[in-house]
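JOB MANIFEST
job_type = single_chain_structure
chain_count = 1
residues = 385
[input]
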Amino acid sequence: MRTALLRPAEPVHRHDVPLRPAAVAMAWLGVGIPHEALAVPGVALAPHDALVAVEMSTICGSDIHTVQGRRHAPTPLVLGHESVGRIIAIGDEGVRGADGAELHIGDRVIWSVTVSCGHCDRCVAGLTQKCRDLAKYGHARIEPRWELTGSFAGHVHLRAGTTIVRVPEALPAAALAPVSCATATAWAGIVRGAALRGRGRPDPSPVTGEDAAVLACERVLVFGAGLVGLTAAVIAAELGGHVRIADPDPARRAFAERFGLAAVGPDDVVEEGADLVIEASGRAVAAALDAVDVGGAVVLLGSVFPTDPVPLDAERIVRGLIAVAGVHNYTGAELHAAAAFMAGRGRAHPFAEAVGVVHPLAALDAALVQAAAPGAPLRIGLTPR
């Protein structure tokens, strides 16, 4: 086990937190190299930072792409960005959650994949996930005073500029951990799609009384029954849409049906038959563009890895008044809303069962192999304890 040495104390604005026993993070060193355990005996929290003890993390597709060498990443690196944990230390000046309320030691939380400055032109424009000075959990190189950069670890050092959301004690960790990636991305995609269709902004809280469903009567087609696509389909259905979800994998279609969704094979999709199309697989962009009806919208969520270029029939898009948008990650407000959805309407669905197996953190390499294998569950969990 490699040890990260404690460094001399910083000025008083940093809060030094010794850890006994030392925190353990699994450092990725490159393609084909086993992860190496890194011992971190302490952290130095800047103002508005927080230290979280990880309860559970889940393996996302981007983690698999990284270890396979399909996406560039700096090394050494602590992977992992889908997590739930508990605050165990807070830097000077305190930490506030996404709802503006002060957070406290002992709070159970999830957090954004991104760290944003909040004042650059992109942040001011609402594109906080594309901040000019962006950092990302599970994607950033280990550096001095920020060794605990990802959630494949026992602890994560949350920096100022991270959106943190307090979550209910009653919800299972397996349902909460993916909220900071899959659920929030799906919510962001539905928000964008609803806006493109002129339907307003979805409300994550349960619809009661005379509240109208944002996607009522909309024909929604989702390509890809991975966790992002599955979640987007469930959200769209809860918002009143007539939803179909397409995937070539019979097991994934069967799992989607357990959420009350109409699941079909890609060959069963009728062209030009949907008002809103969500492409969440990254492999069906052409089919998604073919499937949208006149005046409809296509939201691309899954194209986050290199693929062959897709031919674009610009004339059909122009004459069909079709809107096409890409959504990558999410804003802090969308994470907050996604967590509210999971704590509200999401409770009616078996999201926790998407985590098919849970491994100890020390078995990370074996867990990654299993997650990349054909027929793997939608998510594999990791627990440090």
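[summary]
The longest strand covers residues 15-28.
Residues 239 and 272 are 22 Å apart (CA to CA).
exit_status = 0
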